[in-house]
Amino acid sequence: MGTCRHVDLLLIRHGLTQWNQDKRYLGHTDQGLLHSELPILDGLKSELKLRKFDHIFTSDLKRCLETFHYFDFQQEPILDHRLREMIFGDWEGKTYTELKDMQTYRNWLDNWELAPVPNGESAPIFKARIDSFFQELFHDIDTQKETQKILIITHGGVIRYTVSKYVASSSFWNVSITHGQGLQISFEKKEGEWRCSSFSEVLSQEKEK
């Protein structure tokens, strides 16, 4: 069996929760999806029915698991806590309006990698756990078939960081990802390293309207 040389990685942001709708910071608080907002997933659900995946990974938080089950896949996911959203500490459940006058919050918006979240997760720790997941992922698929298709259901911050790390033209805050939308990064292995070969958006309900 040959070494894997190509990976299509589809990153999907979970559906909408109450705090998402209220524009509150939602990290490890384990909220489920709003049933009234499940139709925002329908466009992507139709698209995914046309695809087959070698592996499906998901954050172990309820909003990602409920998104997975709504898509009605005929295979089991692999749950991984490293795919959780950032821990927002003192800002958990707060809105921009409630935080905007705090200097610590303004500092974080200006440079999230250096400014700490009070009683939350630092950027180095957040990035390290996500990096650990992808290092393990690429290591484990190295000896599989030539092309692999991987689906990951996770959170906005995880997707922003992943895209900013692997797609040269992207930075953390300019990565746009709505609930129920997917972003695909294709990788090729060249000179022993996995490198992004293409990046694209995947259909979401909002894109259809």
TrEMBL record:
Gene3D superfamilies: Phosphoglycerate mutase-like. It holds the Pfam family His_Phos_1. InterPro entries: His_Pase_superF_clade-1, His_PPase_superfam, Phosphoglycerate_Mutase. Keywords: Hydrolase. Coiled coil: none annotated. It comes from the Bacteria. CDD domains: HP_PGM_like. This is Histidine phosphatase family protein. It comes from Metabacillus halosaccharovorans.
